[in-house]
Design brief:
alpha/beta, 4-stranded antiparallel beta sheet, 26 helices, about 35% helix
């Protein structure tokens, strides 16, 4: 086969050489360590949260390193392109404020590494495809759709891998005369890459998110140039990322299956491949099943970026929430740095989870409240005015009628150490401010629950008698306290009954949130079984095995378990304790004929720390700081023992747990110190292990062995410090 002749027959119009093309794209002049990333959406008319999720990674990696973040429109699939799709992409990223250094225009963009629309780069791709044909590394394929379908049917019948390879690659070694005959007839063809790979071989690869992995080598002769002269994504992104100097490719994990093809193409071209970061898919708890699933375009309106603009979510809140999903330590950083801009946070792919990120719209609302609470009244007014001008023109007219009046109202309770958090969305402003506009105000004559009509009338009568429009805010609230006390109500939150609650599910967590909103001081604890197990333990056909998990309250569903983890992460749960009811198997048998007689409770005090680390920290549901707070710091504060207990500091008791994250082991009842003859977490492989325990500076436990006898010391309880 004369490959040079074949290349000239296929590409008679291509006179450029790879060297000519390379000369157009000089090496980028950037500081050492600078990263070049790109966003490469298709102009389908739908920009979704996943696009922004990946783009935020791109933008942070580039701009933190003083590199370049550019936009490239990957429009090689003409069938999916919609009119105005490119402008929609540009508008979406202008809205979120992620600045592109290159490529951000409908016409292909500015910058010396363009054009930035793949449909405008046909000559470039064809030049490199021609070079592959000349080297015998690519060839034309004249297979019809029917022939490919028949090959697929045979592969299915023979239980073989699908694709174009081996004996099914029928045009791989056809003689020149066969090719010439088809060309003479004008038969449409594609150009395929000639793979020399084998599925018997493995490729070692280190992904920036997934870590070290082995992938099967590609043996498919994939299409690199379609019959219309436009390349496939496989080939186009390889060429473009090389010429444009891309150093990191961020994309969804669904592209992992094609990674061997792309690495193979880079090697065939003699180019260094960029680093890849395959991000986990965005998941949510399905309200119907309680299980996890991917965000769906059909089922979940919150997947579309337009949803957040229409509902009035502040852009900074959306970005901050996505950052909590991307880096497990962002929330701790934000708590420590409430006033710093998000971009001061040092983002890293090392803190990204390799498993699905759980999207929670309620958590986004909480983040949004915090973000808005840090804004000035002027900023809030501007954002609400901008949003309402598009989405609620009637309210906008009222809001902007007297800007000074509106800003003054929005300034109430804003600023200071504990600013009000009334607004989660710009669309909330109408309900928040309707009291101040005659056109919107609707009297509500319903009384609060547990307040009788007689009490309500008496309170209102007292209020009418004491009200003075000249009162200062302090004076007004003093009068309200007097009225409350006179009618048997708490004058302030300190006088309100403190509740300690063990939440089990979404409903109880919601009720806790409502109680806190009403001003009640609520402390919350949970136990390991509610964080690790789910109600499937009760469906064991072996009665005794199910009986071992009978406890009060019972273990709930997976969705409730995940809700508890979120509550811990948000600081809504103060402690993770354990009731450790070490009943034996024999004692559980007491309820053989009457399940109500089964003693309620399970053992677990010895495994609490390892379980919280394994299922919380190691799975990136909470950070180490949160673990220390719920296991040590908060319990000490609840009992008024801080800082003697609950902290490692000079003057404090040296109560120390030494945890080795690399010392994995299997939990077994036979290894436990406790007297129970079973363990509810039997067979669980922990991520790490407790190596040593020190009590007041003395070694108490080492590698699972108790070193000393009882050495406890009674400490009187102090005033709660939470």
């Amino acid at each position: 086969m004369d490959h040079k002749l074949l290349a000239d027959r296929l590409f008679p119009h291509i006179n450029t050489t790879p060297e000519d093309i390379e000369a157009r794209y000089p090496k980028r002049d950037l500081p050492e360590g600078a990263k070049v990333t790109r966003m490469g959406p298709s102009p389908t008319g739908f920009m979704h949260l996943g696009n922004l999720y990946g783009a935020l990674v791109d933008e942070r990696l580039a701009h933190q390193s003083k590199g370049v973040f550019y936009l490239r429109i990957e429009d090689t699939d003409r069938k999916r392109e919609v009119e105005g799709g490119v402008q929609m992409i540009i508008d979406a990223f202008e809205w979120v404020g992620l600045p592109f250094g290159e490529g951000g225009t409908p016409g292909g963009g500015t910058g010396i590494y363009g054009p930035y629309r793949q449909s405008q780069r046909a000559e470039i791709y064809q030049t490199f495809v021609k070079s592959l044909v000349e080297r015998g590394m690519a060839y034309p394929c004249f297979c019809t759709e029917e022939e490919l379908a028949e090959a697929h049917r045979q592969q299915e019948e023979n239980k073989e891998n699908f694709g174009y390879y081996g004996k099914y690659a029928v045009w791989r070694d056809r003689p020149m005369e066969d090719i010439e005959a088809e060309l003479a007839k004008g038969t449409p063809y594609v150009v395929r890459f000639r793979s020399e790979g084998s599925i018997e071989h493995k490729i070692r690869h280190e992904d920036l998110v997934k870590g070290k992995m082995e992938v099967t080598e590609n043996d498919q002769d994939v299409v690199i140039l379609k019959s219309d002269g436009i390349p496939t994504y496989h080939f186009a992104h390889v060429v473009d990322d090389h010429l444009m100097g891309t150093t990191i490719v961020v994309r969804g994990e669904e592209w992992l299956a094609t990674l061997p093809v792309h690495l193979q193409l880079f090697r065939a071209m003699g180019w260094k491949a960029p680093k890849y970061a395959h991000t986990a898919q965005l998941m949510k708890i399905d309200p119907e099943t309680g299980g996890k699933r991917k965000l769906s375009k059909r089922k979940d309106p919150e997947l579309a970026l337009t949803f957040y603009a229409q509902e009035g979510y502040p852009v900074p809140a959306v970005l901050e929430y996505l950052m909590t999903l991307l880096n497990s330590n962002f929330e701790e950083w934000r708590r420590a740095n409430p006033d710093l801009p998000m971009n001061d946070f040092q983002f890293t792919t090392k803190k990204m989870s390799g498993s699905g990120a759980l999207f929670d719209i309620e958590k986004l609302r909480d983040v949004s409240k915090n973000v808005i609470s840090r804004m000035t009244a002027e900023q809030v007014y501007d954002f609400v005015a901008e949003w309402s001008a598009v989405n609620d023109k009637e309210f906008n007219a009222l809001l902007t009628r007297d800007p000074a009046f509106s800003k003054a109202y929005l300034a109430i309770g804003r600023g200071g150490k504990k600013p009000r958090k009334d607004l989660a969305l710009w669309s909330d402003a109408k309900g928040y401010m309707d009291f101040m506009f005659d056109e919107l105000f609707q009297p509500d004559y319903t009384m609060p629950e547990r307040v009788s009509a007689e009490d309500a009338k008496a309170i209102l009568a007292d209020f009418a008698g004491m009200f003075d429009e000249n009162d200062t805010p302090d004076g007004f609230f003093d009068k309200m306290k007097q009225i409350a006390s006179a009618h048997g109500y708490a004058a302030d939150t300190k006088a309100y009954k403190v509740a300690i609650i063990k939440p089990l599910d979404h409903a109880s967590l919601d009720e806790i949130a409502n109680a806190r909103w009403r001003g009640q001081k609520v402390f919350v604890e949970t136990c390991p079984q509610y964080l690790v197990l789910d109600d499937s333990v009760y469906y064991n056909e072996d009665w005794l095995q199910a009986a071992k998990y009978v406890c009060s309250p019972p273990i709930r569903k997976p969705a409730d378990r995940e809700a508890l983890w979120r509550a811990i992460r948000r600081g809504e749960v103060q402690t993770v304790s354990t009731d450790h009811c070490s009943f034996t198997t024999q004692q559980k048998l007491a309820g053989r004929d009457d399940f109500t007689a089964i003693p309620g409770g399970i053992p677990g005090v010895e495994t609490r720390g390892e379980l919280i680390y394994t299922f919380g920290v190691a799975k990136k549901k909470i950070g180490l700081g949160a673990m220390c707070r719920v296991l040590a710091e908060n319990p000490a504060k609840l009992y008024g023992l801080f800082p003697r207990k609950g902290v490692l500091a000079p003057g404090s008791d040296a109560d120390i747990v030494v945890y080795d994250p690399n010392a994995d082991h299997v939990i077994r009842a036979e290894d436990m110190v406790g007297a129970a003859d079973y363990n509810p977490y039997e067979g669980v492989v922990t991520k790490g292990s407790i190596r040593q325990v020190w009590l007041r500076g003395k070694p108490a436990v080492s590698s699972g062995k108790v070193l000393a006898g009882p050495d406890g010391k009674y400490l009187p309880r102090g005033k709660c410090q939470l």
